[in-house]
# Entry
Amino acid sequence: MAKELVIVESPTKARTVGRFLGKKYIVMASMGHVRDLPSSKLGVEVDDGFKPTYVIPAGKKKVIKEFKAALKDAKTVYLATDPDREGEAISWHLLQAANLKDQLVRRVVFHEITPAAIKEAFDHPRELDLDLVNAQQARRILDRLLGYQLSPLLWSKVGSGLSAGRVQSVALRIIVERARSIRDFVAVEYWSIDATLAKQGSRAKSAVFKASLHSRKGEKKKLTISNETEASGIVGDLAGATYDITEVRRKETKSRPAGPFTTSTLQQEAGRKLRFPVRKTMMIAQQLYEGVGVGAEGEVGLITYMRTDSTNMSESAIQEARQYIGQRYGKEYVPKTSRIYKTKAKAAQEAHEAIRPTSASRDPETIKSHLTSDQYRLYDLIWKRMVACQMADAVYDSTSADIEAPGRSATTYVFRATGSVLKFPGYRAVYIEGRDAGEEQDPARAPLPVLNQGDTLDLQELNPDQHFTQPPPHYTEASLVKSLEELGIGRPSTYAPTISTIQDRNYVRKNGHLEPTQLGEIVNDLLVQNFADLVDPGFTAQMEENLDEVAQGNRGWDTVLTEFYGPFQAALAAAQSIPRISIPSDEICETCGKPMEIKSGRYGRFLACTGYPECKTTRPYLIRVGVDCPKCGGDLVERRSRKTKALFYGCANYPTCTFAANQKPIPEPCPECEGLLIMAGRNGVKCTNCAFKAPLAEVQTSEEEPEPAAVEA
# Structure
């Protein structure tokens, strides 16, 4: 009996979809792309309209063979790959590789793996969208042209093993420029003056509050105090002053919940709240989307498709969430009308949905026992964000008071006190959005006592305080994703591989935040000086818009490639004449006494004598952390696991000494046993020799970390 054949990407997705479709269908997995450009050559006929030459990788020939065998008994082939350009291209390549007849083929698209969504998709199949396929082909060919022609330039001018890319090189530039702005930042001194005040005659603790010096009476602009002399002058002028409330403002303020997750906002929030790297977030989200066994339900997709830049949600999902909120939290937590969130991205695919749970009634706690710890934490985040986005506003009672204090001179100073009380939690009963460093934090503030115009206050303390302006924070993975999205660089599917690539190439080091390496800065400077357009955020964003126009059928993909290739070739030819760039080190060759430079080879970076070819001395290049090995006294250096590439810290005298630690050591010894202290979490430390644990600030005495340097292994 003939059966219907369904093709998806992964075995997990195949099992989940197959369970919903029943025995009438055979569901197979393509294991991703079945064709690609050849790895051994360019594979693009530049002079023939950028015609690509695709090959079937050796590992996929078995997949195609099994697929062709299954076709013999198949009445219809349903291509059910992911609902994006990449998924459309996978289906198209599968057709080409297997030589299928078009009349046998139907394309089905669903954004969640649930019985209702799959039934809807199979009830309304469509043809393949060749515009989406062409947009993916254009992106793939563009990246191949760039990578296969620009990377060899980096090999010849800097070192082997390097790469450049349309998105990765712009991401590197953003990180380098931020790091340099931090290094070049000149702090500016300024002072503040706070008054600790209390309602006159009251000794109650609740009657005490703080007010900050805001301005001089009659002046609208905020008072700027530049140095200690100015601050001391104001404090002296206020000696013996009275403090009277001249104005009190009370109002009700509201706070609106953040919208449901897109790929970008999920990666950012998982980074802030769960400390998940971007790649880990996407890996776990993929598992939740494709299907997880949840007891009697069997394998079921727990979230909608995780590569999306849309904040749309289906009406049925919204109504289910509103019903759940009313039952769980009460009618007052359900707003009068459904919340609709507008997508910020210009080219967002509005047919897609935001990342949300496939059922709001599937509470994280009810399925916790069926999930791994990481799966539960990410699902809990997605579920709470989606439920909260359909809840009522949080309501605050906010108070602001102006307090005048006449000085000994003719100047009257105005102090300002603000406070707020959460009156109704609304969405905050479920979820509060995280914030990046430097962003305004939670709107809730310490409440003020009941204050009235005309009240006279008692001064308890007048406290001048010195401050310095701060540089912008280093990028984290989360804040980099946010910047890339705001600049229109890349798409949801590119954020994770981009950040992984610049770390794998050793352009960027991750140490709580992202910092460019010396190699990263050298590569960035070479690209900026010789390929200014290529690594310009505006140019890259425009290229994304061009690809979107191809996807919409408004532009030819070969036209986009032609417009790019001419200027790129001219810049590439001009760059051939630049001299080779040497990466200096602080090391001296033990053979001839000449300086050594850092080179990149097949197995990573190494030190080589600048006297080559007369002197051929080389040795491994390692990064020391400025801490001695507790076992042998050697240097502790950064190392990476051969299998997982995970960063750890080991002794430079390996294999003689095998000491290793998974967390970064710090220079300060344990205050209890003089043992080695290592980081524990983001701001804590623990001893490797005893049970001591403490916040980092309690033990850190050095002003800054030691400068990384090369050492001999």
